[in-house]
Structure formats: C-alpha cells, structure tokens
Amino acid sequence: MTSFTSLKSWMLLALLFVAGQAAAQQVILSEDFSKCTSKDPDNPGTKMDDGMDPYTLTTGWSCVNGYAGEGNAKFGASKKGGILVTPSIDLSDASATYTLKFKACAWSKDATSLKVQVDEQEAVEITDLENGPAPYAANMKEFSLEIKGTATSKITFSSSVESKGRFFLDDIEVTKLAAGETPDASVSAPGAVAFGTIGVGTELAQKVAISGSNLTGDLTIAVEGKAFSCATTTISKDDAANAELEVLFAPVSSGDYTGTLIISGGGLKESVAIPITGRAVQLTGKGTKEVPYTISDALLLENPNREAWVKGYIVGYVIGQSINEKSAIFGADGEDVSVSNMLIAGDVNEKDYTQCVVVQLPQGDVRTALNLKDNPENLGKQVNLLGIMEAYFGVCGVKNVSDYVLGDGESPEPVPMVSFAKATTITSGKRYALVVSDGEKYHVAQNIAESSSHGYLYVGDITVSNDEISTEESNSFTITAVDGGYTIQDSYGRYLYMTGTFNSFNVSSEQPESGYIWNINIAADGLATITNVEMNKWVQYSTQYTSFGVYPDEQGLLPSLYMEKGSSSVTGVGADASNAPVEVYTLGGVKVGSSLNGLQKGIYIVKQGGTVKKVMK
C-alpha cells in the first residue's frame, strides 16, 4: 500500500489510482499534459523551463528541469532535482474539503519518493512510487491527499533528492467538496497493464490490485481484447476495499495486442477502463532449464525483466562503463579482461556486440567459475544461465545470475554455406556478397539483425582464393533491376533503404515508399560504387567503426561484389526419408519450429530428415 509521511495532522492519508467524480465535487484545477506532444513518453526531451503555457491547459504553471513528454511530463535530470508549481488556486473555504490527486512514478531505479507542498506549509513526502523500467505508463499510480490553503495558494511538486530524483507526473486535479456532501464511489487500480513481449504459445499472468471506496454495490469485471482474459467477473462490495485480480495474456500468433480491463457497477458514475498491452513473437526456447531461451529469443524479448534460463556461447567481455565497437572485446586476451561480465552469443564466432547478450557475473561461485580472466578456457563454450533478463550496459542483458550449466546443451545446427565469385557486372535476381579488404584481412558484410529495423552492416573475416569466397548464406544480398536502378534485399527478404539524415541502413519486409533505389557501378579494378539515388550517398567500409555505412563523401573503402556461383547447401547432410519430421531454422541456424505457420516474413531453412531446402515466406 502506498504510504505518506505527513507533517501536518490535517492532511488525510489516502490512495486513489482511478476514481469516479461526485456531482457535488467542483474541479478547480485540472491538468492532463495533453498539450505535451513529444514523440517519446518514456524519455521526454523538450525542456519547459522557459515557459509552460504552450504545454498546459491553463496558464500560470512553472517548473525547473521540466521536460514535456507525450501526454505526460518528467521533472528532474540525472544529477538535478525537478520542480513543478501550479497556478494560484482558491483553497480558502474552511468548511469544504479540498482534494489533490495526481498520477506519478519514478524514473527507472531513481528515488521512489517526491515532495508535495502547499505554499509555505510543511511538505508531505509521497513514497512508494514505482521505479521499474519503461514503459512508464504502466508504473503510474494515482495518489490523493486532502489539502488546505488560502485564496491564492500554489502547490509545489519537487524531487525528494537532488541526484537521481527524477519523476513523472500526469492527470493532476484539485477538487472541492462542499460541507455535508458525501464523496462518490471510487475505485483505485493501476493506470495500465503492460505485459511486454512474450513468446507465441506461452502465457503470462499479472496481478492487478483493486481498492474500492464508498461503493454501493458489487463491482463487475470484464476484459476486452484478443488474447487477454480474467477469471474474476465480480468483486463483492465487502471484498472490494482490498482485492486482487489476475489478468492473463496468452497469444497464439505473433503481433502487437491491445485490450481493456473494465471495472463497472458498485455505484461508479463511470466505468474504469484500464488499457492492456502485450506483444508476441515466435521464439525457439521457453525460458526453462530444459528449453532455455536462445540469444535470438533474448534479443526479441527486449529485456522483459523476468527470471529465465538463457543459453549462448561465451565470446568475450566488455571493458569500461559503456558498450560499443571498441569496448566489446571478443576473445579472452588482454590486460583488462573483465571478471564482472561476459558476452554470450548464438554464434561462437560472433563479432557484432549488437547480436550478443551481456551477462553480469555476481560475486561468488558464478563469477569464480565463469569469468574469462581466471578461466580463459571458457571462451567458445556453451553456457546456460538462470538470471533476470534486464538491460545491462543499455543493451540486452542477464543480471543476478543464480545458477548455470557450463558446456551443456546440443551442438548448433549446420549453417548453410554459399560460394561466390568476384563479379564484373550485375545480373538481376542473383545473390551477392559485399567484400572489402583493409590491407590485412578480407571482410564480408553481414545482414542487419533480424530483430532490428536499422543499423550498419557489420562484418566477418573471410578468406579469398582465386577471386572466390565461401560464406554463410545469411551474408547474402539479392540485387534486382528496377526502373531507375536496383533494389537490394537481405537474406531475410528485407529491402535496404535510407531515410532521414543518418548514414546507416534501414530494412523493411515491405517495399518502402522511397529511398530504396540504388545505382551500382563496378569499375575495372572490381570496386563497386553503390549509391542511394535519393540521398546521393554511397556504401563504404569504415575502418574506424569496422562496418559498412552509407556516406555523403569519401570516408572509407569501397566494396567488391561477389556473385553466387550455385545453389546453397548445408554441410554434413545427406538424403533421408521424405516422411521424416520437419524442422525449420533461420539462416543463422537457429531452430524456430516445425512449421512456417506463424513465422514472420523472410527466408528460412526447412530440414526434413537429411533433405534441406531454402524457402521464402
């Protein structure tokens, strides 16, 4: 239960998340921040200190370190406290009851309290703010307390601490209840129920706390929306003061889901409608010890903040306080090998940190057994880990590891390989590899991660012999002639295109409206100039960032194009009976099921016994 520490005896302790309004109540101040229209409600970036009138329904608000979000506002920075002050309002009727209500939560891992002060009266400390990870809408609680004041009172909201005291506010309201009137029936509940991302065919339950006040009858519970349900349909008047519901999310296909938890009856003037959200993706694992999540699963789940088993190959570690191309070290060498973290990947040869999960190694047996500084022989071994799937170094991570199995699990499936020969011309519809030499090694461009919509093309090392290479099929790009130039599609069937001012690639499974036409010219020396027609930028390999980008001027090395020689193959596979079980894999060798049904668009490897074929869905 939310608690308040009040320094004034006349301030009444109360907690209301969502409430109906009594007819006798007069709203004397209301602000829902609907005029705050920044595009990111979880990271407001438009500062309002110079004047809040453009962002509020009524004039006279002021703030210090205030930022407009999308229908909400944040106050405070990482090392600076925040302040919000209301316009002057009349709180002078001694016979009336004035109530302040507002929704609030804390920034992730920041202080779980804020202060409320009327004029120069002693401040009230509001505690038990949720400070979990974004989305913050699901963390919002609505608090309520009685206040008194003068004819020109102002209310101040402020950080309880100067550093890491950031807080969000929304739906601020002050009401006046005349003497002798009875407050209307009301219900408290969370402002939203957010399930995050889970796997297709799995289910996740969330408990929802309900608290009713001044009810005249039983409450009715209903859930609208595909894949959401609630076993409770009625809460008696007597039980409603402190009740708990369990909402279930059980998706059977991939996609984004929305629904509504509706609470009605009990004398409420209006039903309470709580939005429900969830996302379902096709996963390989189940997060159990027997069937752990793969690295691809972890990247798709995007830090669900749940405990689960995850498996991967130990490929390196991170140095410093942030992760990037230079701080992600692949290997077990160096003077500064970390003992507190390691990188795991789905491919034992992975060299792209965006395709890895960073594992926090807590002090104790886990760190002693797994860290690469003391155990360099662990490099390349498969490890299964039980921990909390949450952000670490700002990327996908596993923290608070409590159990592990080292060197366990099945060997990875064989990866489809393709042979390519250096091209001097473009043949429409063929697959190509982008190859570059930095003077010491040859590198081949890799596809942008299947879970990402944009990025640079990172590379893997290859060997060139007689102007031919052999590389994973997932490193191929299909070039097709169209009006005005060519389209380029990656191994997942996604179009490469450009938008905005960035020098990175965007990818889309559907043909974009613009920015997807490329001009390609191969010079006599075999170097290819691949130019985005709309942006007038061309593909270059940056030796600084060790990746391919698209730049407006000369900043790197041009690639050579190598064209596919023949059909793809999977090594080590022979003929088998046609009635053998079907297995479906991504081009990276990750098993995703026994059928193409329910999978996202792309190219898959279908294996039946010893027969392997590539299928575009």
UniProtKB/TrEMBL annotation:
Residues 1-24 form the signal peptide. Pfam families: DUF6359 (PF19886). Residues 293-406 form the Endonuclease YhcR N-terminal domain. Keywords: Signal. This is Endonuclease YhcR N-terminal domain-containing protein. It comes from Paraprevotella clara.
